[in-house]
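Curious: why these numbers?
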Amino acid sequence: MVEIENKNLKKSRFQAIIWPALYAFILLSVILALNWFFSLKIDYQLFKMLSYQWLAAAILMQGLVIIVFIMAWQYNLRLHGLSQISFLQSSLMIGINSIGKYTPGKILGVVARGSALYKMAGDGRLVVQATLVEQLALVHSGIVVAALFWLVDKGNILLALLVLGLALISVFLMARFDELVVNTTFKLLRRTPVALMHIGFRKSYKLVFVLMALMWVLSAMTLYLLMIAFGVVGGWSISALIWITVMAYLSGFLAFFTPAGLGVREGVIVALLSVQMGVGVAVSISILHRLITLLFDFLLGCLALFLGKSYLIAPIDKSD
């Protein structure tokens, strides 16, 4: 009886902290994003050549990227035993992460999302492992996709096929190394994983990897459509833009203390695109690309803010 009361007390304390923290995340994120935007030196004359039809197509493509990312998180959780998790609940968790990553030390977004998931799942080990699968698959698939399409762009088709074969093997090996990855992770956290942790990792990693790889390709298509919108796509292949996009995103991802990689991702895009186009156009494309991602992050964050209290409260039934 006392144990139940202590658990309820901890939950009430958690609920009193998480939502004010989320409000603070959103406010700080908006301030940082606006500060970044107004610090830019933009040549607005370049936007006169912009095709708004292609811009709309780029926005829709980025929306598809977000949908794939949400699906990856949803099926990641389902394969870890949360069979009742809905697409809306997954969207709200991604919304918490999307807005939290704009705070200094963007790990706060992952922590806030993990806190919401812990409240629903009641198992910290599941939270850690699902996040681990997502982050490993994100970086792993990014490296594979970048290497593969870089070789395709250089015309090394046979070597690209070899890399593809090795990539497929690496995915299955990573899934089979579940005991090593899981045991090492939980040993560092001084926790003991249960048998279901190994099974969940093995089941989820391959599917999440595939969805993340698809997300990288679709993200490159967003950049490609923006280039078409500015009329400067000539001379660029899809394969080149894919590895450029992956390099830009991974650079921003690895810049841990830069909120959402602001400036880092754009710098990589400008440096690589300006080789065959004017710097001004490359800057405009990179800024517009960031503004589109900001739009979806803001929308998902608002969705989490207004619906999170209703849909991220009740515990989720876990299947065996």
The longest helix spans residues 2-38. Residues 2-39+46-311 form one domain.
